[in-house]
């Protein structure tokens, strides 16, 4: 399994609803040059909140044995687990990816459970095969 810690290059799009007053205040700060655009302010605010809770995140990641960052599972990784008669519990805070050439059968044979706080990248078929194992 390839483990890459740190920030991923890709981003996920989210949608939020804001009241008119909050949105107006954001636009004012952008207009006054504090931020380059709305997204810049929102990203900064989220990063500041995450930084304020960094200790809690770190303790929880350690306690729950999460991989923090990126974790990739190749077909070769999963075949090695299958051949050894072993199974994996995927626990990732960040991005977990399962290679496109992993069959649903191989995934079901080798993946005991999937807990991803963030993004799981896998084929539709693999996700469907693991649906009852996702938490």
UniProtKB/TrEMBL annotation:
UniProt cross-references to InterPro entries, sorted A to Z: Arc_rbn_hlx_hlx, RHH_8, Ribbon_hlx_hlx
Signal peptide: none
Pfam families for the chain: RHH_8
Record GO biological process: regulation of DNA-templated transcription
Name the record gives this protein: Arc/MetJ-type ribon-helix-helix transcriptional regulator
Organism: Natronocella acetinitrilica
Organism classification: Bacteria, Pseudomonadati, Pseudomonadota, Gammaproteobacteria, Chromatiales
